[in-house]
Structures are given as C-alpha cells and as structure tokens.
Amino acid sequence: xxxxxxxxxxxxxxxxxxxxxxxxxxxxxxxxxxxxxxxxxxxxxxxxxxxxxxxxxxxxxxxxxxxxxxxxxxxxxxxxxxxxxxxxxxxxxxxxxxxxxxxxxxxxxxxxxxxxxxxxxxxxxxxxxxxxxxxxxxxxxxxxxxxxxxxxxxxxxxxxxxxxxxxxxxxxxxxxxxxxxxxxxxxxxxxxxxxxxxxxxxxxxxxxxxxxxxxxxxxxxxxxxxxxxxxxxxxxxxxxxxxxxxxxxxxxxxxxxxxxxxxxxxxxxxxxxxxxxxxxxxxxxxxxxxxxxxxxxxxxxxxxxxxxxxxxxxxxxxxxxxxxxxxxxxxxxxxxxxxxxxxxxxxxxxxxxxxxxxxxxxxxxxxxxxxxxxxxxxxxxxxxxxxxxxxxxxxxxxxxxxxxxxxxxxxxxxxxxxxxxxxxxxxxxxxxxxxxxxxxxxxxxxxxxxxxxxxxxxxxxxxxxxxxxxxxxxxxxxxxxxxxxxxxxxxxxxxxxxxxxxxxxxxxxxxxxxxxxxxxxxxxxxxxxxxxxxxxxxxxxxxxxxxxxxxxxxxxxxxxxxxxxxxxxxxxxxxxxxxxxxxxxxxxxxxxxxxxxxxxxxxxxxxxxxxxxxxxxxxxxxxxxxxxxxxxxxxxxxxxxxxxxxxxxxxxxxx
Length: 655
Fold this sequence. Notes:
48% of the residues lie in helices and 11% in strands. The protein is α/β, with parallel strands linked by helices and 655 residues long.
C-alpha cells in the first residue's frame, strides 16, 4: 500500500436508512423482501441517482449532447451550444413546471368538459350536486344568472372554464381577479399574468427549445407565469367545478392505512387523480345489485379504498378510506387482498402490472391517455359512465374467488377530513356570520403564530412520512396551524394527526383556539389540485384585514418535504409567485446552477415577495420556516404580546 493510499481519508460508511416510519408499510416491505419481490423501496437502493443530473449539471435537449458541466471551474463551462449552467438549470425548471401544469390543468379541463356534458344531458350518472356553488362560480366569472335555468348557467360556466384553457378568455385568466388587489398589480407590472393555460405551457416548451430563450431570469419569469396558470387557473377551476358536480366537502370521519382492507370482502382500490371515474366507481360499488352479485361469489360485500389523490377525492366527499399514499400502491397488492386496482392518470407506477401478475390482483387502466402493457384496459367515458363503472367493479368481484394467502397489516389511523375553504369560513363564524375574522384576530393576538401548508408527495429516497410527520408535530407544538393536501395529508391520517385529539399536542394558544372552534390543529383540505383552496383561504385572510394587504405580508409558509414529481414543482412555483415562502425537501434539482438558485430565492423575493428554496434536513426546514414566520410577524408589528384592553361602548362604536 502506498503512502498516498494510507493517508487518503476513508469514506464514511452511511448508516442504512429506514424505508418508512409507517408500521404497516414496514410489515409489507419485510414480506416483499423475504419473498424476493421487487418494490420501489428495493429498486431505489439498486438505482443510484446520477449525481450530475441530480444537481442540474446535465443538458439533454439536443443531439449535440448530452452536455455535462462538471469538473474544475464547472460554473465557467458551457454546453456545446454555449449554454451556461444558469440557462441549463432554468430550462429544466421551466420544463418541469410546464409538465406539472399540463398534468393538473388537463385534469381541470376534463372536469369542465364533464360539466358541459351534464348541462346538455349527454352523460350517465352525473348531476350538479351543489347548485349554490355553481351560482357562486358564475358570479366570480361575471356570468349573469338572472332568469336562467340551472343547466344554462352550468353550460356558460363550463364554456368559460374551457376558454381559460384554450386561451380565448381574454388577456387574463378569469380567476386572477380572486387574488388580492396588490398581488394582481404586481403580476401585471411584471407581465406575469397568465393568458391561457395551454398558451403558457406551449410558450414554455417553445422558449426552452435549443436556441430560443437563454436568459435565466427571463426564463424563470415564464416559469412563474406558467405555474400561475395552474394555481389561479387549471387547478382552481378543477376544484370549483368538482365541488359543483360532486359536492363541496364537509367534515366527515374515516380511517387510513392498509388495515382498511377487509379479508372477507371484495377489495377494490381506486388510484390516480380523476374524480369523474372514482365518483362512478363509488356509485357502482354501492349499488344493491352489484353488492348482491359479490355475495353470490362468497364475499360479505364490497370494500372500496383509495390510493393517492383519487383517495382524497372520494374521502373528502364520501368518507371512503384511503389505503395509503403514493408509496403504498405496490404494498397494497402485496397484501394479497386487493381484487382489483382501478387506475386512471398520474402517479401510477408501471411496476404495478408485473407485481399484480405475482398475485391475483386485476390491474385495470381506464383513461384514453394512459395504458400499461398487459394490464386490462376498459376505456372510461362519461356518456356511459355508470354502466362502465359497474362492469369494472364486477371484474373485481369475479376475481375474488382467485385469492390466495392474505396478509393485511392491522394498522389504521382515525381521521377527520373534508375542510373545504367554504367550510372553514363557516366553521369560524357560523352560518350567518361566516368569516375569517377569528383566524385573523388570533394570529394578531399571538395565540396562533401563523399557518403552514405541508403538502406533496412521498419519495423513496427519503424515509416515507418521516419529514411530514416531524414537521406537523413540531409546528403545531409552536402554535402554527397546519393545512394539508395530497399524499402529505395521507401521512398525517395514517399516523393519527387528523383528529381533534391532536390538539393535545398543540401549543397552548393554538389548542385554545381549536377547542373554542371545535377543529383539529391539522386540517385536511383535499387532493393536490386542492392546493388552490389554500390560495383562496390566503386571499380571504388578506381581504379580512389586519394582516397586511398581500399574501406576501402574511406569517405563512408552504413545505413539500418529500416531493418527487413535476407537479410538485409547479405547485411550489405558483405558491412562491403568489407571495409565499416555499421550502422543498429531498434535494435541489438545480443545486449546481447557482444563478438559478439565487433567482428563485433572493431574486423572486425582491420581485414577487415569495421564495422557492430547497433544504434536505427537516430540522433546518423547521428553523427556516419559524424564522420566516417571526420575520413576517415583526413586519406586521404583532410579534410582541400586547396588554389586553377592555373596550367601553364608545370604543366599540368607533371600532
């Protein structure tokens, strides 16, 4: 051994990372390992992330490359075309944002098309479940409803929504007007107001083509504008129109985790993101004839459960229990208890079909946009929706007799879900005095220090649920109200954090408010597209007064601790462009592109009042968020406890 080899520092051996903090997940992961079954948890160890691509130092946009900007003086290097680190990183971010916006907004377009078909009587099984919401949406769209039949109003609302996607609604998306006035002025001054969902996505793809836009700051401005087309366009429309068609959520109780599967019933899981499908599956699974058909096969009944955001859709409106979040989709099949998994679009792993073949599960794809090789494909359409849904459910029933050994982990978490922004408004003020005033007042008096949204995905490169649960617990302990959507909400559900009893873990101030109002300190707001509900809440808090005149003034933040996909980056960007402080965990996808990192943090803070930053350590995320909230409280002059003053009648009249 040479001297140099002896003196060379030994690489520190990494400690094995826990796969999950969920005992149900760990039980099934162990079963898979013992039986030699490949899962996302084993493949992530076999597939090391490319360190060059992971940090934004690789460009694959043309056949002159791929170009890798690494080694000595990497920041000074360029691609073959001359593209700098900044240009490469900005292009990546903009394309990722465009991909995320396309997915979420295409979801919204399909909801709008369904509403239009309902208005014309061209569908089966659907109806307008919340007429009041329809008329409120029409008012927000400046559509007159005087003397019009409900279906005529629905047709106009649906068409106006579709115009927002196609870019023919005018120079601005309709819902931009729902943002605080100051926020609208900032967007208009900077040219960030989206003009149409499709237009912004297409322009983003055009600008990021080789040889077009090569200024990082300019590119990232387009990224913000494209993201806003989702947050204040596609996603917000999807949420509103889903409420119109399927009902606006109200609180209900349920359970979550793999323990919701039942050994003596037909277990059917809906997985994906489209409520048009899942709503009909719910109806079909509850049909007396279909239930009797299941009994004729020896089952005690039909048990429906969900995975991912489809789970959130049917949970919020029907109390259907979620079997888990993104990383539970394979684990559910490995229990041997799932007779059919019905999928549509987004976050569906291709690994499901090879896995289903090892068990008896029938994987059924339903969307014309998404097929999986060798899976059963039953194309869903709204015109024959209920009939198709019944046929699909019967496939699951027929498969019940093919079950082998079943191993269902006996773990569930109780939960309360269904907190739409409308219900929060009602909850705080009652039917006749619905208002965000109590929330504002308690933030101003310090009982609630602020609010944080913990949203997003799971990622197998970090311990499942660990960051989400740590941050939820630590924030409520510090008198921070937490709101959640998506797979992050499932994490809290599995670990029992979505119940009123959680207020015992909260700080004294937050606990007092929760007890008075009768709400949990952690509120489940729905699926990923329902992050638009959070934008609506923030706008209403600003409108209520006393906490500044823009979203950027509020003591709030957003965290995505375990993100994995483009949709998360799109959501984070529209939150930052709306004035919020946003922190992502896992890793920074453009860490080597220091110009881009600086623009998204310092540059955006100066430009739009929001920031998009990345930090893999959960403890540091907590510290950063708490520091930001205190900074905002100081700027508002509400950081010091004020003496309580009793008002006389004259003072009350003046107030």
